[in-house]
Design goal:
Length: 100
Amino acid sequence: MKSQDTPFEGGPMDGRVLPVMVGPTGHPPKTYRIPVPDPGGGPPTVLVYRRVPRGHSKRLGLIQGWKYAYDPDDASGGGLRWPWSKPAAPRSGEPDDANG
């Protein structure tokens, strides 16, 4: 499989560049989860990073690459979202469109 060096921003991985496997479209996964073992033998802590554009070209505005930004309050649960699924509950602090 093909991989590309992808930078990480924020959180414990800030400033590191790791080779990340890319899919058939040439894009890395939208979410990158890193399990960190607990020193006390408990369940591992999972660091969640979201894929964001690294930059855009000046003329056409095309994406020049990808990087991962730290997402400390991940509420996605990591499961697949199907188009016919019920919408996810809003995160804390976000306005609810139905009430407002």
